[in-house]
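Data deposition worksheet. Section B asks for the primary sequence of the deposited chain exactly as it was used as input, without tags or linkers unless they were present during the calculation. Section C holds the resulting structure in token form. Section D is free text for depositor observations; keep each observation to a single sentence. Incomplete worksheets are returned to the depositor.
Section A, Depositor: J.P.
Section B:
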Amino acid sequence: MKKKFVKVMLFGALALSAISYVGCKDYDDDIDGLQQQVDANKSKIEEVEAAMKAGKFIVSYTPVANGYELSLSDGSKLTITNGKDGENGQPGLNGETVIPKFKVSSDNYWQVSTDDGKTYEYVLDADGNKVNATGKKGEQGEPGQPGEPGQDASANVSINKDGYIVIGDVVTSLKTDTKVPSIVINEVDGLYVITLDGKEYKMLAEGSAYNGLQSIIYRRQAANDKDDFVKSIGLMSSNDPDAELLATSASVATFKVWPTTLDLGKAVFAFTDTYKTRALVPALKYVEGSAKWVDNRQGILSVNMISENIEVDKPYASSLDVTINGYTTASDYFNFKAEKWTPADLSFVHTKDAVEVPTDILADATTTESDFSSYVEYTFVYNKSYNLNDSVALGHGAEEDFISMADLGFSGITVEFKQTADKAKGIFEIKDGVITAKSSEQASAINELCYVTATYKNEKGTEIISYDFAVKAVREQQVAPALVDIDVETKDAAAADKLAKLQYSTSEQTIDLNVRAFLSSLGGRDYMSDNDNVDPVKYGLYYLTTEDGKTYANKVNAYIEFTPGRSTDLDNLKLIFPAGTVINGDQQLYSFETWLGGGNSKYEITNSEEYAWRKSTTTHRVNGSNKQYTLKLKDLVKCERKVIIKQNSAFVVDGKTTITGAWTEADKSFSMTADLTVLYAAYNTDNSASSEVIEYYLAPQEKQSDAVKAVYSQINIAGNVITVTPDVDVKTLGAIKIGAKIQGTDIEATILDINGKDVTYCEPVLRSPLDVLSYKSSIDWNIDGDQNKTINVGEKAEIKMSDKDINVTKKNVVIEKGVAKAPWATAYGIDAAAITYAIDGYSATVNEGTYTIAPSTGVITCNNTAIVQSLDIYVKVTVKHNWGTETIKRITVKASLK
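Section C:
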């Protein structure tokens, strides 16, 4: 079916004078009058919006000079005028209110009358064709089913950007001046469509059932239309022709709508009438689901769009259609264009005021700059946190012109915050974009800068741009306590272990202390450092003793030294032991500021002592005051001059350190001597080799065994070499007691035996340099008259002795066939007289003198060959040398007398 109704458009004189067909002459506006009109329009817009929000509707209208007076439902009046009288308008229309009337002809075409309905002319489109009052005929349905009814062409009457009246989607040849107000009365929908300053407002007529939007107004982003554009941005890596496309924005525009009860889920959004003068088919497309409330109480709505057939840096215009409940409302026109940017076009700002981050200053800021007041927005209280995500942002422009990347329509852009390479500090950590000082050491972060690099990337992970800046940790204003007692601890487990094993050294020794804990306990790093003065602060140390009921402070050479750095990571706190420092026993060390003992290392502390001399004062004032404090080493400290003597296992025989003597090849001599520094080794308490020089000495005679006492004068130690002179029987001598002490002192070394047990002395033993005698235990002697009446036992029994290997490649023969062999025998004190033989019995009774033996040669002679007798003769052999006596108890000589 076809709907027929009449549209009535009411124009003031200026508005009507601007109505023209294509080709009519345009008239210049009076500039002063136009400004007055703009000001008037602004006031009227506020009145119209207020009436709409108050729910008022129009009861009637009355023509007045240069406009209309609208009577509202609450009895109030709203006057819409055109300002000054029109100039050069249509004949008879100057200064008069004319009501153009629109109607639909009998043949369904729109007609317009400008003489109050006396005559009508057809409304023509831009091509001179009559405008049909109905929509296109519905497509043919299935057989037997009627097509859908055509849509009324006048369902939405508006004025486009160029001032042409649009009916439905048909641009007519009628034109008005968009700079002045106009009113369209939609009698079918019960609407008064008021156009002010290019913006349409739909006020309800009395009894209207209209439930679409009454207004949708584009919210301008710039101060004037000339500079105001909704933009589609292609972010390029550079301006080079082959530059990489880093990101593309979906354009964003915001609109103010009424009523604010618009259900976004039911509304349909579309951009229509996108054009550039004489350009071909440019288009904007709504991004589905992008519409969202920016402020639903104020009716501020944002939508995203993407562009097609848009040339870069060319201006376009478009409007937004919102359809709800079957009614479509169009916004005023907004400008649009596409641009290409590079990262250099972006701004990095502080989110609070959109002021650009002064990266050129903050990236190179030093912690020596105590005044950070100009950049308070880049500070945070040291024991709290700083959220970088909420503090800095990337976008375009600055201050009131700043637009974030999200508001520009960019999506998928991420930011990563890290401590700046080569400037990272262990006191800070950044996690999920939040800076904090480590909880155990927070106070030492006061006045310290955390250098940050913000790196922005696109959704593919490609870096877009990065910025370096700094954030400063500061303290809250607070009053410093009067005195703080601080327990100072070692930096880590390695330092604690080093302190536990500390002992005397001829070189300076240092132990790293926990500077972070020290500054934190003090209440903040700013008490001791301004990052400018890096002079060290030294603290003397003492321990307490009680003697005869009195308490003494005992000064030690060790001291604590704090050296402030130009940044927190360069601070250090050390416990220093100068060369030669000795602290006997485990001592609790305290610091002092001023030593009252003068040149004495011991100072008596009276009962009334207030320990004022102990208190140190901070080097810097905080909140107008210094702080006093004392230090105490948390761990007990000792630095004893101690050395441990252990046996060298290479010289341990049968569990005892053994002196084997030394063979001198050059003069074929042997001496019972040994280097005690070879037999024994000196160690520190941590089992490392000691650098101490050890002096070995022979224990007093009364401390020795009886055997050693007997030859005490033959034992000598000189230059740590022990020498024992002959004659000494090593088999009966036993251990020699030898003491050890640190050279040049009376400090005795701790001596451990082979089992690691503390002993008073080293107790080496001597070893005979000679092997045991070898021989045949039984030899035959056949006596045949005067034949074979003698026998050489040493030769026949093959008596032999060699020395033990000492430092030669082979053993030397000392006795061979019972005879001493030079020069080896001489070296051990063996000559002919040293080897003796004796008959030690017979197996049968023998007359005395029948057999005799030469003691020095071992030759037995049978002195009575007339008897016939067979028996065993037992011979004993003795060899005496410098280091004892070797004995062959029995060699059996089987004598047979024929």
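Section D:
The two ends are 172 Å apart (CA to CA).
Confidence is low (pLDDT under 50) at residues 1-31, 84-97, 135-155.
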